[in-house]
């Protein structure tokens, strides 16, 4: 890694693994968090940069009355249809990358954390990253947490999980693993430890 600048950390994990909980804590501790899910939501909000291309590709029915992308409708379409998922990613991912690049320039924290759910699945991120942190929990726990949080059925969560890389493949790429099978307070403790490790990188 380049020792003359602050570290850039890639934070990944499967759906519902705890990325947001970890990155929120890192932000509290002084990290500059750049969340690609949040950017994707902004791009698809009313007036968002991706809206014209979404209408051209998926038709006006993909937009709800307030002008935002209809997420439930698109979720149904893309997690059942790999070609449509690739089309949606083809619209959003280049715009997400541009925005990540812009936010990285701001460099407002002790280190930057790029929260990227599809870090392992999609190429093109590694050159930006000094360190990869994986949040990991048992698949059953993931399923239960997403069902509770989003009101999804078990089948809906499994359909999303099937489009993501398996845990072992993700773990094999990790420089640091935050295990999240127990309580939120333990997750905070582990995140505080990870934060300390990342700060040591900066001092190396
Ligand atoms: C499919 C969409 C409409 C579903 O919206 P929804 O509000 O239900 O989910 P949200 O955007 O909050 O994402 C939640 C989680 O779903 C998973 N997920 C999202 N997109 C994808 C994808 N293309 N492939 C696999 N998993 C995905 C991730 O674990 C993510 O953290 C939405 O996720 C989307 O627009 N996806 C394409 C953009 C993308 O790839 N985002 C990931 C960040 S790079
Ligand atoms: N250790 C834990 N104990 C109990 N609930 C947890 C724990 N960790 C996370 N959760 C809850 O599980 C859900 C998923 O966590 P979180 O949103 O942080 O995951 P995520 O990886 O960001 O998810 P996504 O991929 O969908 O964006 C949230 O409702 C969160 O509050």
CATH homology group of the largest domain? P-loop containing nucleotide triphosphate hydrolases
Can you list the ligands bound to this structure? dephospho coenzyme A, adenosine-5'-triphosphate
Alpha carbon gap, first and last residue? 10 Å
Strand content: 5-15%
Family: Belongs to the CoaE family.
Pathway: Cofactor biosynthesis; coenzyme A biosynthesis; CoA from (R)-pantothenate: step 5/5
Enzyme class: transferase
EC number: 2.7.1.24
Tag the structure with descriptive keywords.
5-stranded parallel sheet, binds adenosine-5'-triphosphate, 2 domains, binds dephospho coenzyme A, Rossmann fold, 9 helices, alpha/beta, 204 residues, globular
Question: Can you walk me through this structure?
Answer:
The protein is α/β, with parallel strands linked by helices and 204 residues long. The chain has helices at residues 19-28, 36-43, 51-58, 71-78, 82-106, 139-150, 154-163, 167-171, 184-203, and strands at residues 8-12, 32-35, 112-115, 131-136, 176-179. The protein has 2 domains: 1-31 and 109-204, Rossmann fold; 42-106, no CATH class. The chain has 9 helices and 5 strands; from the N terminus they run βαβααααββαααβα. The protein has a 5-stranded parallel β-sheet with strand order 2-3-1-4-5, with helices on both faces. The protein is globular and about 50 Å long. The model has no long low-confidence stretch (mean pLDDT 95).
């Amino acid at each position: 890694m380049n020792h003359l600048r602050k570290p850039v950390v890639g934070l990944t994990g499967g759906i519902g693994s705890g990325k947001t909980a970890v990155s929120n804590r890192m932000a509290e501790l002084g990290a500059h968090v750049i969340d690609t899910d949040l950017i994707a939501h902004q791009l698809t909000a009313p007036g968002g940069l991706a809206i014209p291309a979404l209408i051209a590709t998926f038709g006006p029915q993909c937009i709800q009355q307030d002008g935002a992308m209809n997420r439930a409708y698109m979720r149904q379409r893309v997690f059942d249809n790999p070609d449509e998922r690739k089309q949606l990613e083809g619209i959003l991912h280049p715009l997400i990358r541009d925005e990540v690049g812009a936010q990285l320039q701001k460099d407002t924290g002790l280190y930057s954390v790029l929260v990227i759910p599809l870090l392992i699945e999609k190429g093109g991120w590694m050159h930006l990253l000094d360190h990869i942190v994986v949040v990991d929990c048992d698949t059953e726990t993931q399923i239960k947490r997403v069902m509770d949080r989003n009101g999804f059925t078990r089948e809906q969560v499994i359909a999303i999980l099937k489009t993501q890389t398996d845990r072992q493949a993700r773990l094999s790429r990790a420089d640091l693993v935050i295990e999240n099978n127990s309580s939120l307070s333990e997750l905070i403790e582990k995140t505080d430890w990870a934060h300390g490790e990342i700060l040591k990188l900066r001092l190396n």
